[in-house]
Write a structure and sequence with these properties.
Blueprint (H helix, E strand, L loop, with lengths): L2 H29 L8 H8 L13 H9 L5 H13 L2 H21 L12 H10 L2 H31 L3 H9 L3 H10 L3 H4 L1 H12 L3 H12 L10 H12 L8 H10 L8 H16 L3
Helix pairs in contact: 1-5, 1-13, 7-13, 8-9, 9-12, 14-15
Length: 292
């Protein structure tokens, strides 16, 4: 298999895994009447870890990608990988990246498939762990748990924003910080914690209040009353597939016949007309072209 073939296969596998977890996620959200409800023990653990709140990472795709890597590898290894990448000849960079993608995809697949069941250790198991595990290892495990939970929350809200508003949280936050008031409200609809975790959002809310911008405050409140998951797009799975293909550079250049075959294979599209799938792609890309 060539480097390009391996990279494309990795992309297909990422889409499959994402769709699988997306399906479980929305079963969970619907079960809880439109909210992402987490177990009390998990909430207590996360809120007591002294680390930056997850919403502080939305504005940087690089930071979100790094957080995901830190679930599996040590921080010093991430730095070492970055250094090795910079030292490689250009023709070897893609091969190195494709091999890394395969490794981490395998790790991702091996993670607990019932992630949304949140298997919380019993009090007895926690006590035994504390007795038999060094303080240094416990601190490392707490940090890894933070990275895992943060990655889960970030990707969850990325997906929800995409299928509710047609843009990821990263794009909505970036647009909001460029002065788009609608994107500001849409981002807060998905994740209210932006109002204290992101300095721009915090300042914007303060200014709206101090300047007495009641109509804009009312608009923000209206969005905050909406359910987490909207009904704007009737094919959310297709939108997710397009998003990942676009992020990896395949969507624009893929022949329509190949795109149709892929979407049918992924079970995210039920038609058999290349012109129709082309219109769906154009709709998606037009939406993204609104971004700077």
């Amino acid at each position: 298999m060539t480097v390009n073939e391996l990279s494309f296969q990795n992309t297909k596998d990422v889409i499959r895994e994402s769709l699988f977890r997306f399906s479980d996620l929305f079963v969970h959200i619907h079960k809880h009447k439109g909210s992402l409800v987490l177990p009390r023990e998990l909430i207590n653990h996360y809120t007591n870890v002294e680390q930056p709140p997850w919403a502080s990472y939305y504005e940087s795709q690089e930071k979100m990608d790094t957080i995901a890597l830190l679930v599996f590898i040590e921080p010093e290894d991430v730095a070492s990988m970055a250094k090795e990448l910079r030292s490689l000849p250009s023709e070897e960079v893609q091969e190195y990246k494709a091999e890394l993608e395969s490794q981490y995809l395998d790790m991702f697949k091996d993670m607990d498939e019932t992630e949304l069941d949140f298997d919380i250790p019993s009090a007895k198991e926690i006590k035994e762990y504390q007795k038999t595990t060094s303080l240094e290892q416990q601190q490392k495990d707490i940090l890894t748990a933070y990275f895992l939970f943060t990655t889960f929350i970030l990707q969850t809200y990325q997906f929800i924003a995409l299928v509710t508003h047609g843009r990821s949280m990263h794009d909505l936050v970036r647009l909001a910080m460029e002065g788009d008031d609608i994107a500001f409200c849409q981002a807060v609809q998905i994740d209210r914690t932006l109002l204290f975790a992101n300095p721009y959002f915090q300042k914007r809310l303060t200014l709206l209040q101090l300047k007495g911008k009641q109509s804009q405050l009312d608009e923000l409140a209206r969005f905050m009353k909406h359910k987490l998951y909207g009904e704007k797009y009737d094919s959310p799975e297709l939108w997710i597939a397009f998003s990942i293909l676009n992020r990896t550079g395949y969507l624009k250049s893929m022949p329509l016949d190949d795109l149709l075959d892929l979407c049918l294979d992924l079970n995210v599209y039920s038609g058999n007309n290349t012109k129709a799938i082309g219109k769906q792609r154009s709709k998606f890309l037009k939406r993204q072209r609104l971004l700077k």
